Amino acid sequence: MKLEQIAIYDSIEGYMEQIPVIKVKKGEFIPTRYSSREGIPNKYYIINGQIRVWNNVGCRKIWVDEIGEDWFAGDLSDVYEQFLNCESWAVEDTLLLEFNDEVFQELLNDVRFAKAFYHKMSQRVYQMYKRMLMNSMYSQKEILSSYIISKVKKDRMVCPNMNALCEFLGFSRRSLYNTLNDLIKDGILEKDDNYIYIKDREALEDQGKHVQEYML
After folding, report:
1. CATH topology for 3-135?
2. Which of 20-29, 31-40, 165-174 has the weakest average pLDDT?
3. CB 88 within 8 A of CB 27
4. CA-based nearest residue to 72, from 102, 41, 38
5. Where are the domains of the chain?
6. What is the pLDDT at residue 97?
7. Among 76, 178, 183, 199, which residue's beta carbon has the most beta carbons within 10 A?
8. How open is the CA angle 54-57-60, to the nearest 5 degrees?
9. CATH 1.10.10.10 fits domain 139-214
10. Concatenated DSSP letters for 166-200?
11. 0.90 cut: is pTM over it?
């Protein structure tokens, strides 16, 4: 996506000398920088790329969100007088706009910018809330089936990193392996060291359809 195509461009066009563009390479953390005396972190906006958001609780890493181009990013919880203590890192090479707090607060006085910010944030919160409800409403077999359907190509998918998949789905490692083995025992899937194969697509789609419909 080009800078001129992002949703907030008309609002920020006159501020571009005060809004640096930064590049974050794949695998790097999004920096937490402060430019106000109150210790309020800078905000970001994704021009292109992908960012994954985590929350670390002791030794546990909890998947929070994944966001792509044309979305706000960084530590945004202070806008709502909250502190979520999340970390973000680039899933792929990512290009960001960086807003210091003074510029960001001034832009929030622009009705167009404020409308875009709160609309996008409410959409993200709603999607995260739906994910939380999904884990309560559906079985792990239904959730895993839905995930595989969304990722598979030509009836096979590359075996994912199991630790990362546990974090993404909110499963324990034991639960993930048990659920995967159940689908294999049911004759729906096969697995080797490199790939997961679909043996009964109709049955897999039947298992995952309610989750997919809910998450639309």
Report:
1. Jelly Rolls (2.60.120)
2. 31-40
3. no
4. 41
5. 3-135, 139-214
6. 97
7. 183
8. 80
9. yes
10. HHHHT--HHHHHHHHHHHHHTTSEEE-SSEEEES-
11. no
